[in-house]
């Protein structure tokens, strides 16, 4: 992380048995679909992508949905759309909870699949639905998106990673069939920073990393990506070490244990919650690769 040399090496390795099964299921079902719709978290457009999806979705129509775009840095959203489109992947902003961006999605899907629709039309097939596999890591809002698109609560939702299990096809307006898949991470998150960002956006369970370690990393990211933010919000001197900054934050939030000792662990959780609830502002943690 550069900013934070005192933090122990983070190692996130979270790959329960049901994930191995889920990958196998996706590999078996990919041949049944025309298109892969990948849902990512707009606050972490790179870290929240499963790198295995590109391999899995080879030769399929592609669409990336940047969900939770109401929580991310507006100035960065457009840059990330360009990043994906430069790779030849159509990308749009959505907010599954409000339905923003979901309404006109059928037009986008038809536009992307127009060659297939035209091929079917020439062969006299006019009513065949477009089959889409919905993929995404845990907690990016896949089930909320499906429910928003289909207009009914058909997919199991929850804010804990790994709620959706099993295989379910969801019919939308008799035009699309969506194959929901369980949210899967990849076997080992090699890059420390990716693992930390996944923990910050809630895509890995909170017990994987201590909140103090998360908070130190968050401070390190903010110092690089949003210099001056902690000073502006809390009057904190950002030139200090992340450990001192967290102490200053805990003092400002008046988090005192009995015996006038600072409650650093509560401060760490509160700072993490401040990020997750947008109290620090609309932020995007990932940096666009050169």
What's this entry about, in short?
By secondary structure, this protein is an alpha/beta fold. 38% of the residues lie in helices and 12% in strands. The chain folds into two domains: 17-180, P-loop containing nucleotide triphosphate hydrolases (Rossmann fold, 3-Layer(aba) Sandwich), CATH 3.40.50.300; 210-276, Orthogonal Bundle (Conserved Hypothetical Protein Ylqf, Chain: A, domain 2).
Descriptive tags:
290 residues; alpha/beta; Rossmann fold; Conserved Hypothetical Protein Ylqf, Chain: A, domain 2; 2 domains; six-stranded mixed beta sheet; 38% helix; elongated
Task: Describe what you observe in this structure.
The chain has 290 residues and is of the alpha/beta class. The chain folds into 2 domains: 17-180, Rossmann fold, CATH 3.40.50.300; 210-276, Conserved Hypothetical Protein Ylqf, Chain: A, domain 2. It is 38% helix and 12% strand. It contains 11 helices and 6 strands. The chain has helices at 17-29, 52-56, 74-86, 105-112, 114-122, 142-150, 192-200, 211-225, 229-234, 242-252, 264-276; strands at 35-41, 61-67, 90-93, 130-135, 168-172, 176-180. The protein has a 6-stranded mixed beta sheet, with helices on both faces. Helix 2 (52-56) links the parallel strand 1 and strand 2. Helix 8 (211-225) crosses helix 11 (264-276) and helix 10 crosses helix 11 (264-276). The longest helix has 15 residues, at 211-225. The protein is elongated, with a radius of gyration of 21 Å. The two termini are 18 Å apart. The model is unreliable at 1-9 and 156-165 (pLDDT under 50).
